[in-house]
Design goal:
Elements (H helix, E strand, L loop, with lengths): L1 H28 L17 H4 L8 H8 L1 H34 L4 H12 L6 H12 L5 H8 L10 H29 L3 H9 L4 H25 L7 H8 L6 H4 L2 H10 L4 H29 L7
Helix pairs in contact: 3-14, 4-8, 4-13, 5-8, 6-11, 10-14, 13-14
Amino acid sequence: MKGKKTFKKDFPLYLMALPGVAVLIAFAYIPMAGLILVFKDYNYKGGIFGSPWADPLFKNFEFFFNNMDNALRATRNTVGLNILFFVFGTIFAVAIAIMLSEVKNKHFIKISQSVMFFPYFISWMVMGAILNALLSSEVGVISGALQKIGISFDFYSSPGAWVVILVLVSVWQSTGYNSVIYYGVLSGFDTSIYEAAQVDGASKWQQITKITLPLLRPTITIMFLLSVGNMLKGNLNMMIGLTNLNPMLLEVTDVIDVFVYRSGVQNGDMAFASAVSLYQSIFGFVLVMVSNKLAKMYDSDTSLF
């Protein structure tokens, strides 16, 4: 009886949540039935459920592990780049959020946030065209400037340079969005803490390092935990848009999604692509659980669950 009354009282809330739940079921849970494809010898005539079972059952994982050097390279690139993206993205986002929190002109803050948000909506293809206009050895502005001072450097045949380039582009694209999140958290801090620090003679730098950053630490930890689940997922659109899968850059840009695309999708081997996606999901889940456990041991308030 009590549950019935509670349901009736909260019915408008359930009704508001219904569209989101429906979308989640339709696009996240129902497609899980496709995981059966991982254990099938897929053909287009039989489809997912009509194709025969693979023999042996884990046949679709063999290609990934038989090409262990490329598989390890793809895993290393994926994890390494994602860690760099998060670390540098967080540093710049927090720095901008702190700087905006010190500005008193609200109109300037709104305009600045709007301008910084623009890159978040630019497609990777457009960003690739911008990079080509800057770095191309034939028409690139930066390459041309280097050539004028006697330095000849081809960015599109130098994999090492693309670690820096990819990090810079990722930071440029995501910093505005992430800074809004941290700025919102900063806006909720108790200003009396800063007033007390000023009375005690604390400088602005001391206020940032001793008050602001420690108070932001739980939010940064939660943001990291949310990103850990995608740590083994590379951005295929990013790599295609920025490098057009240039084979000379695969030493750095061959993340797992690119490896799957090259080895599975281009060859029409959908079962292999699904097997590697399952590998990503399982290890992503393990990383989330381990990271959340470590965060909970360090500070129970920063864990997700």
